[in-house]
Design a protein that fits this description.
single chain, seven-stranded antiparallel beta sheet, alpha+beta
């Protein structure tokens, strides 16, 4: 038996259901500057890769938050990887600071200059995506922000054979309610190149049993 929640029913609140079911969600720890030069640092868990070539990422501002205003004013932002050692800092930066307050400064989070955009990146973050604004899309009470990735930085100690290593990056994820996902078990399974790679093996296995 299943419980069905009709999203056209005013009594149903989709947000807590969606955030409990669309899991785990990677976190875009977004740093921006306002037009006046005030820094802002805030986590956004509606975040993903939107395009491979050219590289474009997206995050969603649920409501019209400071990150959205700053990106629209300046056309730039940085997505900092939220790592396990920074859990408390990431969570604390989600508090509703006023638009004139720099969260990083208030929380004692060290920032450093980025390579190609004006907003600074989190110095202790294992990796960052420096972005220029591609476009924004209004979606009900939320705004989808798409950014052209103009630089990708990764700390050398997070690399193995020239590739970022998951176990070293220790990325955080958001779940439902106040729950967070910590770095989890990883398995490596090669992707089949052709259907025959799967079907042939299945037929062969059937013939030998």
């Amino acid at each position: 038996m299943r419980t069905t929640f009709r999203t056209d029913d005013p009594a149903v609140k989709p947000y807590p259901l969606l955030t409990a079911l669309v899991v785990p969600r990677p976190i875009a720890w977004v740093s921006t500057f306002s037009a006046e030069g005030v820094g802002n640092l805030a986590p956004h868990s509606f975040f993903t890769v939107a395009c491979a070539t050219p590289p474009i990422v997206s995050f969603t501002s649920v409501g019209h938050k400071d990150s959205l205003r700053n990106v629209r004013e300046t056309g730039e932002f940085v997505v900092n990887l939220a790592s396990r050692p920074q859990l408390d800092q990431v969570n604390n930066s989600s508090a509703k600071f006023g638009p004139g307050i720099d969260e990083a400064s208030a929380l004692g989070i060290e920032m450093e200059p980025s390579e190609r955009v004006r907003p600074h990146r989190v110095a202790a973050s294992p990796a960052s995506l420096e972005c220029t604004l591609h476009s924004t899309i209004e979606l009900g009470d939320s705004v989808l922000i798409l950014g052209n990735v103009v630089a990708i930085t990764v700390l050398e100690e997070m690399m193995v054979d020239g590739h970022p290593e998951f176990s070293l990056l220790q990325p955080l994820a958001r779940l439902g309610r106040a729950e967070w996902g910590l770095p989890s078990e990883v398995v490596s399974i090669p992707r089949p190149a052709r259907p025959d790679d799967i079907l042939g093996a299945a037929v062969e296995a059937g013939e030998t049993t």
